Amino acid sequence: MKSVLVAGLPPDVPGWLARRLPGVTVEDQPSPGAAADALRTGEWSLVVMDASWLEPAVLQALEASRGSGSAPPVVLSAPSDRRGGEPPPVEVVRVFVQPLDREALVRDASERLGLGAQPVSTAGASTAGTSGLPAAVTAVWLKYRNQVLARVDVLESAALLLMEGRLDREGRRAAEREAHKLAGSVGTFGFAEGSRLAREAETLLTGPTPPAQADALRLADLAVALRRELTASPAPAAAPPPPSSSEWIGGRGGDGSGDANEADASTGSAGSAAPAKNRRSASRSMPAEGEGPTLLIVDADNDTADRLAMEASARGMRPVVAHGEAEARAALGRTLPDAALLDISVAGGMELLRALSDRFPPIPSIVFTRSDAFTDRVEVARMGGRGFLRKPLAPARAIDAVEPLLRPDARREAAVLAVDDDPAVLEAVRFVLEPHGIRVDTLDQTARFWDALEASAPDVVLLDVDMPGVNGLELCRVLRNDPRWKSVPIVFLTSRTDPTTVQEVFAAGADDFVGKPFVGPELGARIQNRLERVRMQRALAETDALTGVPNRRGSEEVLERFLRLAAGQGDPLSIGVVDLDCFKSVNDRCGHAVGDEVLARVARVLQKRFRAEDVVARWGGEEFVVGMYGMDKSDGVQRLAEALEVLREEPFAGPDGETFGVTFSAGVSEFATDGRDLQSLYRAADAAMYAAKQAGRDRVLPAGWTPAHGEGPRTVDVLVVEDDPAIARLLQHALETRGLRHEWVSSGERAASLLTGPAPELRARVVLLDVDLPGLDGLGVLRLMAGERMLERTRVIMLTVRTHEAEVVRALEMGAFDHVSKPFSVPVLLQRIRRALKV
Which residues share a beta bridge with 628? Predict the structure, then answer.
């Protein structure tokens, strides 16, 4: 076993090294004395130490190991002022200048330990230009290199004018601005030394007194050094090899081959230049249209796993069950889940949790285990777990905890508005954040800020401090003064990190700031942290805690968006208002706990009957609102009626064990026909819902529905002519549920007398006509109706047990609209009726 002794480095470096050097033990020492003891008593493959820790005891321990022939190679971290100074008082194999380049350190350590080359990450900027950067960031640099070098031209011109004594205040300010931009941007593209040179030039130009002619030579030297640094030819970035299984799992297929974009992402790089949406679809097997999200369940207990899978399936999820780490990794090689529920007590459980969290994008995971040790909870949080559930727990409760991770609003694309007058920085921000599934809208002119804000509707605003016209601090105050935008998270991206600027940033109302030049993982982590808080706050504010569906506030924004889309595209849109029948009696008779269960079950029924893109929301009490994009009023009535039929079959239990049923009344309105804004559509649907209650409850009515009344013949939507009362009652119930006016007669003679003659008593839009009727059969009734030319306004659907082709042809030739054989499917027959009513 290879071992590395770390002493005097930042506290997070040892753990980071341990993760990047698989199979290597990394031990951190808390003091120089402890480091000396460890050197005397242990055998080390490598020593990584801060130069300030080379105290006499440490030097003696190193000298003793050298005398015994077991001296480990020593790597030092030293401040920049040690370069060119006295050599360290010990033989070392390499000195890293502070701030420590971690990627260079891990590559050097890996080679010395015989582990081979390590993947390159953007966690630390290379000091050798762009040779270590991912291809996407290199592409941005190549695109803007000429613009950056033009800024160096300004510095060179300022140095020349300063030598000649002709550098005026305006020229000095221009050079200062360009140096500031260079300091903040070139480090992001891997030129850490270039950033340092630019910052020194900025300091020289912004001193308390104007630079003297004596400073001209130094400014010229800085400009020359900057140009030499920035004109180095960038080496093409090679695709890194796939990480080990402890860092990366899955791929595009079962052969274990990884996706190049995924490999980039796992090392924290910005990925390729392809759109984030395409990268995500390439890396994850998404459910087919109409299917639910995938849930990985890892549990060694077969019974527990099966019960969790059954509950997940009942919620519309696609469970994938694994009973151990090996099975889980095999499953992940075939398809990638949207979330995971795992027991960390299985062998390799913690490693699996870390692998899921380290994926790109991460797979949210909830731990479900019998352990309740605080140390386990801390470790789960460290590994990126999103929840901790203790067994035993009902499967329904466990899946309840998983559902928020899978809600469409939690998976929706997040948006960031980045404002900076440097287009190179804006494009670098885009390439850093888009691989995380974040939409990045950019703006380089503050005068258009408000228009860009309205168009973007961002979840986070990213601002630079120093911008011409209106600076970032002023934009921050403008946002905090506006009621709509006062709560949006604001992150500053600035090269000014002095205490005064930091104080001004937070005093203006900022939530966080990132220094320039930035590295991808830090910026990505800061933005993701803010987005996660936004999601949590939005979920609390916009979700009904009892049912788990959106509340009124959470649904109105989506419904308004539906309305704008319907108006622009000319698509249909329906709004349904649902109110439970006699719900107060449920609370009075069975108690509020049972009433709460009823509401939760009703919400679940509605969610299952509607598509993922539809809106199901609880607007208060026992009232729900459903938004159905792409459905007209008739389609909306049909879909809600199907949900009502399912709810009728749901048994509910009271506190005494007695079961009871629940129904609802609903109304449906349609965009443009019944209203052009949300409030008018809601009022129209609400009025139809109250009409349904007055008509007897337990039904769905379209807006504008009125009972048949007035002079002249009665008008119905459907006349049922059927001599079998059981079939007739079944059809009547289905028609009643959908708010269709109907009547039933059991003989052909009665049907003919109602429909035909000089003064008919009844007009029907559709007639369901059984062929085998006593006395005058259905074909005889059809013949009479055709003779009086009634079939031009009335559609006849023939019902018969006999299915001879000649009979069907005869009925159609006489003018029948359709023909349905008995026994028939009620849903299919209802679809035929709906088609006939629309003609």
Answer: 574
- Beta partners for 94? 75
**Does residue 823 have a cis peptide bond before it, meaning omega lies within 30 degrees of 0?**
yes
**Rounded CA gap, 603 and 576, in Å?**
14
DSSP 353-392: HHHHHHSSS---EEEEES---HHHHHHHHHTT-SEEEESS
| Mean pLDDT, rounded, for 255-269 | 34
Look at residue 464 and give its three-state secondary structure: coil
Residue 720: strand pairing partners: 744, 768
DSSP string, 115-161: -------TTS--SSTTTTS-HHHHHHHHHHHHHHHHHHHHHHHHHHH
Q: What is the CA radius of gyration of the chain?
A: 36
**d(Cα 605, Cα 646) in Å, to the nearest integer?**
7
Q: Judge whether residue 306 has pLDDT over 50.
A: yes
pLDDT tens-digit map of 162-191: 887 888 888 888 888 888 878 777 777 777
CA distance 250 to 359: 9
* pLDDT for residue 797: 94
The span from the CA of 278 to the CA of 294, in Å, is 19
pLDDT of residue 612: 74
Task: Classify residue 105 by burial, with Cβ atoms within 10 Å: 0-12, 13-18, 19+.
Answer: buried
pLDDT digit string, tens, across residues 100-128: 777 778 888 888 888 765 544 433 333 33
- Highest average pLDDT, of 1-10, 228-237, 478-487, 597-606, comes from 597-606
10 Å Cβ neighbour count for 423? 15
For the chain, what's the residue count?
839
Pair of tokens at residue 728: 């007739």
Has residue 238 got a pLDDT over 70? no
**CB distance 707 to 716 below 8 Å:** no
Cβ 800 vs Cβ 807: under 8 Å: yes
Q: What is the pLDDT of residues 358-387, one digit of tens each?
A: 775 678 888 888 877 787 888 888 777 888
Residue 643's pLDDT band, with cuts at 50, 70 and 90, is very high
DSSP codes of every residue in 50-83: EGGG--HHHHHHHHHHHHTT-PPPEEEEE-GGGT
Question: Nearest Cα to 778, choosing from 800, 761, 757?
Answer: 800
Instruction: Find out whether 160 and 190 touch, Cβ atoms under 8 Å.
Output: no
> 122 φ, ψ to 5°?
-85, 15
Strand arrangement of the beta sheet that strand 387-390 belongs to: 318-322, 294-298, 339-342, 365-369, 387-390
Contact 549, 617 (CB under 8 A): yes
Locate tokens 């390729």: which residue?
A: 272
Strand 438-443 relative to strand 460-463, pairing: unpaired
Residues whose CB is less than 8 angstroms from the CB of residue 42 and which lie 6 or more positions away in sequence, other chains included:
3, 5
348: left (phi over 0), alpha (psi -120 to 50) or beta: left
658 burial type by CB count under 10 A (0-12 exposed, 13-18 middle, 19+ buried): exposed
Q: How far from each other are the two terminal CA atoms of the chain, in whole angstroms?
A: 80
Question: Contact at 8 Å (CB) between 117 and 136?
Answer: no
pLDDT of residue 709: 58
β-strand pairing of 2-7 with 623-629: unpaired
Find where tokens 């004596």 sit.
Answer: 214
Token reading at 200: 């020194």
User: Which has the closest alpha carbon to 123: 525, 522, 607?
Assistant: 522
In whole angstroms, give the CA distance from residue 684 to residue 213. Answer: 80
Q: How many CA atoms lie within 13 A of 619 on its CB side?
A: 18
Q: What are phi and psi of 779, to 5 degrees?
A: -65, -35
**Owner of token pair 């006295």:** 86
Residue 30 and residue 6: Cα distance in Å, rounded? 9
User: Of the spans 452-456, 499-503, 589-593, which averages the highest pLDDT?
Assistant: 589-593
Q: Is residue 788's pLDDT more than 70? A: yes
